[in-house]
Amino acid sequence: MKKDSRKKATIYDLSVLSGSSASTVSAVLNGTWRKRRIKESTADLIRNLAEEQQYTTNQQARGLRSSRSGLIGLMLPVHDNRYFSSMAQTFEAHVRKRGQCPIVVSSSRDPEEERQTAETLVSYSIDELFICGATDPDSVHEICEAAGLKHINIDLPGTKVHSVVSDNYEGSRILTEAIIRQFPADNPLSSDELFLFGGRNDEASRERIRGFRDVKRELLGSDFEASIQPTNYSPNTARVAFEKFFNERQRLPRALFVNSSINFEGLLRFMSNHPRELFADLVVGCFDYDPFASFLPFPVLMIRQDVEGMITKAFELIKEPLSTPKVYFLRPELVAPRTALSGPLDGLKDIV
Amino acid sequence: MKKDSRKKATIYDLSVLSGSSASTVSAVLNGTWRKRRIKESTADLIRNLAEEQQYTTNQQARGLRSSRSGLIGLMLPVHDNRYFSSMAQTFEAHVRKRGQCPIVVSSSRDPEEERQTAETLVSYSIDELFICGATDPDSVHEICEAAGLKHINIDLPGTKVHSVVSDNYEGSRILTEAIIRQFPADNPLSSDELFLFGGRNDEASRERIRGFRDVKRELLGSDFEASIQPTNYSPNTARVAFEKFFNERQRLPRALFVNSSINFEGLLRFMSNHPRELFADLVVGCFDYDPFASFLPFPVLMIRQDVEGMITKAFELIKEPLSTPKVYFLRPELVAPRTALSGPLDGLKDIV
DNA sequence: TTGAAAGCGCTAACAA
DNA sequence: TTGTTAGCGCTTTCAA
User: Any idea where the domains of chain B sit in the sequence?
Assistant: First the structure.
């Protein structure tokens, strides 16, 4: 005999139906029944009833009581970008595998929004927070700390807890060198023909710029202040920067190091206003991987960051009791032009 | 005088500190105090205390009591794709604007996973569920229905509640026609040179195929069974299909209608194994928009679905009391080659 | 092997 | 204008 059917069944309903107490039902349903020495048969009975009544645990109640929620949070700068969306995809797979519920939220690289987002997540008693690409991870840390919430930094390091980031310096060196080597010996690239566009004053950008400059000096003999054109992470700001550069010199550099695929989109916006011939022998290196970008009509070298590795490492580290915060570096990978790498989607089973 | 500081302050702490009762504190903090006729000064006092103690509401407790949570769910097939990631980005902005907390989860187009995901979300008492691109939306409906959870379908329609989808038939017609018109009058495309790759037996694919076939018949005089090559939504399956086609005929069709950017990635994988000259005069139409794909070295026509419009409409409809379930169609937009459209990221403020 | 009872932090009648 | 009280559904001692 069904109950209201609009109302979900509770352990009390099952308690009545089974003739056991609510605490017995609870133990059976949350898996602690073995160590409570509950009879196999009682357990069976209750489980059948639960199935029949379509019982599902009310996680809010469980969470309130146990001050856990089963929710694992990932805070992202933005969703709409292949780097971060693959981060979300990978993160989800890991969380699901542990039987928990992923909750992915973005906070636009705005420190205030980051803090608010963290507070919100705390108020839902999430169990762990992965802070990815935060502008101000240490402020987020304070909030987590105050709530006793385990957390870790990814992509951009903080100073209060462990961080897992790409080796941006090394990645940048590899990319810069690869850009330079694209040019033939009889028409080599000169220092004043290679510019870096994009990024801002964050650790990743600083490291990438450092690698870029070092390699330029080593391989091209020199570098100069203006070879760095920061544009934040914004297609439109990047577009404007390219326009400006072009207007001043009537051409783009022969070679471009674009810091992040987001800014690469700014280059596309610029291109859409100009004839394609203009870019016939442009060489672009992009610090980020996007499968479509790899096949553009000019050589595009890309750096793919090891998202799977970062997430895996972060899951390892987040449970470790914190000693002194350390930064773990993962080496990113150079991707040759016209390369289609497999990604997190390839792990999913195909339903046809 | 601070409390434990590791423990979060509760309304009881504030109740003691302020000398008011817990219910007064509660009313002040959750905004119902005006109608409870609480003195402005008491309210002020309590709010100051709350600030000072860094009080934040325990949403689990509030949710348990009020059987709401402030969580709004979006169920996506996958994250790592520009269509769905822009969906997530847009959805987030809408939810945030309403002061609620977005929770975006993917379920791999697997009906069983869709159901489980829905159950999980229900168990957290989410307030509304947006079901995007679900393989079996009606099963998800049953779960929501049983829990009294408001929900709506996006992208792929269901029969039990309202749905907001792209006008796939019309979009497909537009795209197919545009593909055909890419070819010059003196060397026109013939029916046997245009194939559709990708998709499966879902409503979107069926409609796209219908539009494709209709336009082929109208403009090219005929169509044939084999012009449709379903590959599911999977880069790898698509790659295999292209390989197979190529092996059998030693060439690709002159023109391709690729159903979804996910399958377009399969085409890239195919291309990476072949010299670029092979694709010198290929024309591709893709039902989905990706900014990088738009600039590939051959003409790429794309269809951008109206994500912002779909989300907006869905938010309108979800609160409407359900009469007979209706399907709302939004017209997607044809995107010419070499076009960089602005997206949901452009709405964010730029922090430099 | 099980049950009774307290309580997680909050809301919302109902009193006062 | 405010306080008292009774839960929301679950977990977890402690007792039996």
Answer: 11-52, 71-161, 168-304
